[in-house]
Design brief:
The complex is a heterodimer. Chain A is elongated and about 50 Å long. Chain A has three helices and nine strands. In chain A, about 30% of the residues lie in helices and about 40% in strands. Chain B has a single domain, classed as Ubiquitin-like (UB roll) (Roll). The chains are: A alpha+beta, B alpha+beta.
C-alpha cells in the first residue's frame, strides 16, 4: 500500500500494515530528519510533492518490487509539510517469508524512491537561510 | 497555442510561480517546449538542463509528443540522499 500524508508517521501502524502470519521477516526503514549535514545545522525541513505523479510512481515502484522479490506485503508512507529534527519523513515496511528478500526489497525501494518519486525537500538551515535540495543543482 | 506547465521546488522558486504559461505550436517535442520555456522564463536557464519533464504524470522522453490534452510538469532532481 501507498500513502502520502500530512500527518506524523505512526511507525507501529506501518509495521502492522505488513504483518502476516506467513512472514518470517519484517523490515522497517525510517528516513528521519537529520539535524546536522556536514558542518551545517538544520532547524527543519519542508517537503513538497507533485501528488498525482508521486502516487503513480510509488504504485509502480511497489509493483516493480513485487516482480523482483518474493515478498508478502509492502507499505510505503511519505509525509509532506514541515518536519523537525528526529521526525520521520518516510517509512517503508516489507514482509517476506525469509529475511533476505525483505532487506533487499526495502533497500531498493528507498533508493529508487529518492530518484524517481517527485517529492522534494527544502532545508531550513540554522543560519536562517533556506535551500531546496536537488542533487546536481547548486542552491 | 498556450500551454500551462506545473513548477515545483527550485523551478517554482526561480520562476516565481507554480504554473508557467508558454506559447508553443502543437504538437511539440520536449526540445520545442524547452525552447519556449526559456524564451518565456530565462531565469530557468541554469536549472532546466538538470530537470526532467513529466507528461501526464509520467517521465517524458525525447520521443514524447505534447498535444493540447497533455499535463506537463518540470521535475527538478529528487532529493537524493547519501546512502
Amino acid at each position: 500500500m501507498i500513502e502520502i500524508t500530512n500527518n506524523v508517521i505512526d511507525s507501529q501502524a506501518v509495521l502492522e500494515a505488513v504483518q502476516d502470519t506467513r512472514a518470517g521477516a519484517v523490515v522497517l526503514f525510517l528516513g528521519t530528519t537529520r539535524s546536522i549535514t556536514g558542518d551545517r545545522g538544520t532547524d527543519s525541513l519542508d517537503y513538497e510533492c507533485y501528488e498525482s505523479m508521486a502516487t503513480r510512481q510509488l504504485e509502480s515502484l511497489e509493483s516493480a518490487a513485487r516482480e523482483r522479490w518474493d515478498v508478502i506485503s509492502i507499505q510505503i508512507t511519505h509525509r509532506l509539510g514541515h518536519l523537525l529534527p528526529g521526525e520521520a519523513s518516510v517509512a517503508i515496511a516489507v514482509s517476506s517469508a525469509h529475511r533476505v528478500n525483505a532487506f533487499e526489497c526495502g533497500q531498493w525501494l528507498i533508493d529508487t524512491l529518492k530518484e524517481d518519486v517527485p517529492i522534494w525537500k527544502k532545508e531550513n538551515w540554522s543560519d536562517g537561510t533556506h535551500e531546496w535540495v536537488h542533487p546536481g543543482i547548486e542552491g | 497555442m498556450t500551454i500551462q506547465i506545473k513548477l515545483f521546488a527550485v523551478a517554482m522558486q526561480k520562476a516565481g510561480t507554480s504554473e508557467l504559461e508558454v506559447d508553443c505550436p502543437l504538437p511539440a517535442t520536449l526540445a520545442d517546449l524547452e525552447q519556449a520555456i526559456l524564451t518565456t522564463c530565462p531565469t530557468l536557464a541554469d536549472i532546466l538542463p538538470h530537470c526532467r519533464f513529466a507528461v501526464d504524470d509520467q517521465f517524458a522522453t525525447a520521443q514524447t509528443v505534447i498535444t493540447t490534452d497533455s499535463t506537463i510538469a518540470i521535475i527538478p532532481p529528487v532529493s537524493g540522499g547519501a546512502l
